[in-house]
Specification:
Low-confidence stretches: 15-47, 256-266, 603-607
Distance between the termini: 53 Å
EC number: 1.7.7.1
Family: Belongs to the nitrite and sulfite reductase 4Fe-4S domain family.
Helix content: 25-40%
Largest sheet: 5 strands, antiparallel
Mean pLDDT: 88
GO biological process, one term: nitrate assimilation
Protein name: Ferredoxin--nitrite reductase, chloroplastic
GO molecular function: 4 iron, 4 sulfur cluster binding; ferredoxin-nitrite reductase activity; metal ion binding
Shape: globular
Length: 607
Amino acid sequence: MAASSASLQRFLPPSAHAAASSSSRCRRPGRARAAVSSVPSSTPAAGEVPAERLEPRVQEREGGYWVLKEKYRTGLNPQEKVKIEKEPMGLFMEGGIKDLAKIPMEEIDADKLTKDDVDVRLKWLGLFHRRKHQYGRFMMRLKLPNGVTTSEQTRYLASVIEAYGSDGCADVTTRQNWQIRGVTLPDVPAILEGLRAVGLTSLQSGMDNVRNPVGNPLAGIDPDEIVDTRPYTNLLSSYITNNSQGNPTITNLQCNDTLFAGNFRPRKWNVCVIGSHDLYEHPHINDLAYMPAVKGGKFGFNLLVGGFISPKRWGEALPLDAWVPGDDIIPVCKAILEAFRDLGNRGNRQKTRMMWLIDELGMEVFRSEVEKRMPNGVLERAAAEDLIDKAWERRDYLGVHPQKQEGLSYVGLHVPVGRLQASDMFELARLADEYGSGELRLTVEQNIVLPNVRNERLDALLAEPLLRERLSPQPSLLLRGLVACTGNQFCGQAIIETKARALQVTRDVEKRVAVPRTVRMHWTGCPNSCGQVQVADIGFMGCLTKDADGKICEAADIFVGGRVGSDSHLADVYRKAVPCKDLVPVVADLLVERFGAVPREREEDEE
């Protein structure tokens, strides 16, 4: 059940794109040319989808980049115009970042082209200018397939943020990934080279790109796993970034309009590979989920498509009625991405996730568009059943657990709301080397797993100050399920502060009630829902409201009822616009009402 890379090269673009003679900050794109392969028109169900609707809306131009055709350029959102004016990937593939990094911010802001480079196009390189809250500083998002990283990589990232003092920190994200903060533009070329030297990349981790491929955080060590997801997520990441060289065939998926003034909301596309019955990867909110399944005695994957969370709508992924062999996962990923790229909506900002395209075409027409983009024009129908045990009770990976390898255990560490300082990362790297195999695993709940610890070394590891004081293997029942997005400390789109508030509200609630089990509480600072409130038992989405005195204050819409696992369900709104200063009693009452919590006073009386 191991993935093979034998077929990967067939689906990568040419590795060497002709570089321009010089990388000018004012370079405009060259003239577009006809698409290399024009997809034949489909035969949609009678009366459903006009044939002209299935004409690809993009074409390839010089350098292998893909752009919107002239006739579809009416009513564009601002982001599409920025991409047409200058190809974002040129900053990496043609070395433009080296020239841009030499320009002072004052000069950059005086020129629309370079200002758009800094505020928009650099996101294709994983660099996000924090213009609103940290002018001149960037967040850098990496690619970390399956959340697997090494002590060497962790030390390097720690050294980067350490250099920025109080402006530098790191976050574990809800896509099993690292984000580092405080980066300044002049340092970027050297940082990119440092990433390459330790086997990391930030390329294509933001905006109209495929996000970090997610897999089982216990891959290869879990006694009950179905399949080791690491080979598959590594293959996907290699295809998506063309082995970290840049894959311009899939860097112009789509983009929506602005959500708030000056901030572009990206056209993300998420993929995961399921490796265990626990569904740690959250397949129901991914655009493409590979579900392990056997067909005709051969291992492979059934496919789910279209899961997403967005400000105005959220929906669970649906079966594509398709199965692919386990050693051939790249062609279908490529076909789905190209169908989305070619046919997706680029106007209305609320209707640009892939599920909107599926809704418009219908699943069977969408499937036929995927099938015609397969190398042999054939997409097998799904296996009758996947291999997921629907009655499986999702396990908690925090704490100490035995591995499938005799004499070894993994230790799940709770990272409070995913935030780490350089000192924490240096210590994690040391612990991984001293007690494990030099490896760390990141999870979608913003935590870290330390694998391959010899059982006789467990007591010494658990006695380490970092575990006793900061990253506990056994946090409280409310803290262990706590997730929070960046919030308005750094993010220009966030309406409220999230990370510190999530911790404080949780601790204050714990003083009022005791819960009988883990309750997953997620915080997100705005409707983009990077904190994934819709999958939480209780979710908090930032907004503004008026308090009892009529003053504008930070508030949260409360969501209740999200579930993960085989019985997944997205949460519904429970109560709108609760002032943040009033949340503690509301949450305490909700825990008693819905989750079996007991007020602390009664608990003490009964004792």
